[in-house]
Amino acid sequence: MTLESQEAPAQAPGAARRGGLASRLSAAAGRLREAARLLVLAGTLRVPAPVSPLPFTYHDRAGERMPESLLPRPARGDPLFVFLPGKDDRARDFVDRGLVGSLLEALPGSACVAADAHLGYYLSHEIVDRLRDDVVLPARAAGYTNVWLVGLSIGGLGAAGYAMDHPDHVRGLILLAPYLGPNALLRAAAGGGDLSSWRGDGDFRIFVDVVEWLTRAARSAAAMPILLGYGRHDRRRAGAELLARLLPPERVSVVAGGHRWPVWQRLWRLMLPGLPEVTAGSPASRAESASQRPLTSPPLACGGRGGEEPPPGSGVRGGGGQHPRDEHEERFFPRSE
Question: What is the largest CA-CA distance in the chain?
Answer without folding.
Answer: 91
